[in-house]
Amino acid sequence: EAGVAQSPRYKIIEKRQSVAFWCNPISGHATLYWYQQILGQGPKLLIQFQNNGVVDDSQLPKDRFSAERLKGVDSTLKIQPAKLEDSAVYLCASSTRGGAANTGELFFGEGSRLTVL
Amino acid sequence: SQKIEQNSEALNIQEGKTATLTCNYTNYSPAYLQWYRQDPGRGPVFLLLIRENEKEKRKERLKVTFDTTLKQSLFHITASQPADSATYLCAPSDSASKIIFGSGTRLSIRP
Questions:
Q1: Nearest to A46 by CA among A30, A63, A32, A34
Q2: Both ends of chain A: CA-CA distance in Å?
Q3: Nearest Cα residue to B18 out of B65, B60, B62, B66
Q4: Bigger pLDDT: B8 or B24?
Q5: Which of B43, B96, B100 shows the shortest C-beta gap to A108?
Q6: How far apart are the C-alpha atoms of B1 and B73, rounded to whole Å?
Q7: Local confidence pLDDT in tens for the 117 residues of chain A
Q8: Interface contact flag, B95 A100, Cβ < 8 Å
């Protein structure tokens, strides 16, 4: 079974530039998550999708971050304009279940490491 | 606000001993709790899940306990090996399905 695919693995940009990250979850997984992990910290949830609908985006900085999940499969996370504090690893995860009864384990991709100069 | 605390300092253990990691939470009533392992430069990998009505869960050399009165979970690795060296993350979750991670504990097993 193929795992969660993410690209690019590494990205270096100047502040105020834009960047996009792509995620392809495990086939059949209804729930998709984007997490931000700053060095030395645990992953912080940015947004959770159930199929192509947003379940939780309460911690997504909506003035600069946006995410979409077209057709309930692949997802893209965009940052525009980037700030220095956005330097982090952006992790995508998927799980089989969703909604209030979700107890499914999360399957993570390898992450996309962003450096903002 | 919800808060999850894990040992902030790295844990150094002699090979063969039992490693015990702690996860405490406040302002929270998780229905279940997950533990993940994360190696440098990699995404977290699921290890175990324990529900609020379970006191203990085991998987091979791993054991997790969940005390809802103390608001604490303990994660044990028995007969530890250098290959167990990694960062371990706890992730309590309430019934709203939001999975929040602690900051992790870095475990180092010396030969």
A1: A34
A2: 37
A3: B62
A4: B24
A5: B43
A6: 19
A7: 689 999 999 999 999 999 999 999 999 898 999 999 999 999 999 999 988 899 899 999 999 999 999 888 999 999 999 999 999 999 999 988 654 445 678 999 999 999 999
A8: yes
Burial of A36 (C-beta count, 10 Å sphere; 0-12/13-18/19+): buried
What's the token pair of residue A95? Answer: 């799980």
- What SS3 class is residue B60? coil
- B48 to chain A, any CB pair closer than 8 A? The answer is no
Q: Find chain A residues with C-beta within 8 A of B102's C-beta.
A: 42
- Residue A101's SS3 state is helix
Per the CB < 8 A criterion, the answer to whether A26 and A107 are in contact is: yes
Residue written as token pair 């600069």:
A64
Taking contacts as CB-CB distances below 8 angstroms, the residues of chain B near A41 are: 103-104
Q: Are strands A65-68 and A53-56 parallel, antiparallel or unpaired?
A: unpaired
Cβ distance A42 to B101 less than 8 Å, yes or no, reads yes
- Specify which residues A34 forms β-bridges with: A47, A92
